Each structure stands twice: as structure tokens, then as C-alpha cells.
Amino acid sequence: MLEYEVVKSGSSGNCVVIENIMIDCGIAYTQIREYLYGVDYLIITHIHGDHLKDTTYKKIRKFFPNITTISNWQVSQKLNGDVDVVIDWGESETVGEYTFESFEAIHDVVNSGYVFSIEKEGEQYEIIYCTDSRDFSNAPDKEYDYMFLESNHDENIINAIKNPRKKYGYDVVKNAGRHCSTQKCLGFYYMHRKHEDSELIELHKSERFYTGGN
Fold first, then answer.
1. 213 occurs within a structural domain
2. N or C: at which end does the chain have fewer Cβ atoms within 10 angstroms?
3. Domain assignment present for 212
4. pLDDT band for position 166 (50/70/90)?
């Protein structure tokens, strides 16, 4: 079994730790500092502030210089090249004991999903991580033991909303289109689970429109 913790996931900030890998640092440094002592790799999925908090990243680089940072070209550009490994969509790169494969997570900026394997106690586990994507159509078509996936909202609730701007002050339906629904998340899970015990970890759940699926 893998050790993981969803430190935070949602529009107010994102950070997930899987064994010695941290994915995203979109929250305050004080909230993640204790985890960094066991982290060797930091993956940043995209440039949005709830996934990449500039002040947090600077402190990580200052106080934990041995952590290897992995991301895409747009994140590297935003950070003035201060990224150790850049992996473009459709490419894979071996970094330390892992081989990370990157794919496009469809969003309004350059957003990367990742597939990698972790060997632990003689077992090999296949992992996929993808959030802030409207679907998983670009994800590698393979079977996984652990799936960390966007499960933002219930399509039935979104589709039933009338006059969303008047009710909520913004276009809820349009905004939901930038994020993956629970229905799509579960569909991918059941089509790609390696076995019945494959674990789904739902991410970026809307406080208002998520009703629970797993």
C-alpha cells in the first residue's frame, strides 16, 4: 500500500503528497513545511496560483534545495527557468527512481497530468494524477492502481441550474466546463482500474456542486 495525503485540494489551494513526491504547492509554506522533510520530488502541474504559490515555491527552493522540481515549459517560464526537469506533453523522463510521463490536462493554461510507477516492498504500483482538466481524453490508456483525479461537480446539478449569473453572480455552467465532473471521473476510474481494489482519490471537489461519487 502506498502512503499518500491530500494536504489540500480545491480552488483555495492544492497540494498532494504521494510517498516522497509532492504535487503542487498552491498553499502557504507553513502548511506544507512538515511534509518537505520526506519529499525528494516536487511536481507542479500548471501556473495558476492555487497550484503554484510563488512565495511558497521560493521558500522550498531556499530551504530544501535538494528537492528536484518537475514541470512543464510554461511553469518554467513563469519561474524564470528555476525548474530542474521540464517534461512536455507526450514525453517521459526518468528522474531518480521514477519515470514520469506527461500528458495534456485540458484547461485554459498549459496544464500537465502525470503517470508514473512506484515500487514498494516488492510491489509495483501504477499511478495517474490529473486535476483542473475538463476530461481525461489525453491520459495514457492503461490500468492503474491509484488514480488521483479531478471530480469537481455533479453534472445533474449543473445542468439543472437556471439563470446561473443571476443566482450565483457568474456563469456556473461555463466555469464547470473547465473542470471534470464526477460522472466523467468515475467513468475513467471504472474503465482503467487494474483491479477492484484500485483506489480513486477524488480531487478539486466543489464545495457547492460536488455531491459525492466514490
1. no
2. N
3. no
4. low
